[in-house]
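New to this. Comment on this protein:
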Amino acid sequence: MYEFNGKEYPCCASLTMGIIGGKWKTVILFYLIDGALRYNELRKKMPTVTERTLSLQLKTLEEDGIIKRKVYTSKPPLKVEYSLTDLGQTLVPVVKSISNWGEKLANSQKV
């Protein structure tokens, strides 16, 4: 058994998928590879995600130490940016591999 953030996983693959699995987490990580993005920038890149789902997924990734949330309060309006942590950066090769595999699959279906 593997344990992370108080949760138990039966194997290391299960742990990894517990952190980045689901419909939106990997998409969020994919868009953060190139640098920090504001909430609305992420929303524009993922137009079909609901605000509630995006907020929950960002919060979960932050709690797991994969992304960091930086709030700029120096002048209105409030600005919030999300970026990968050092731990999140270690997922870049994994996310890129997933992306490359999906691209190959999509291209193989073209007639």
Summary: The beta strands are 2-4, 7-9, 37-38, 67-72, 79-84. The two ends are 45 Å apart (CA to CA). The chain has a mean pLDDT of 92. Residues 2-100 form a domain with the Arc Repressor Mutant, subunit A fold (CATH 1.10.10.10).
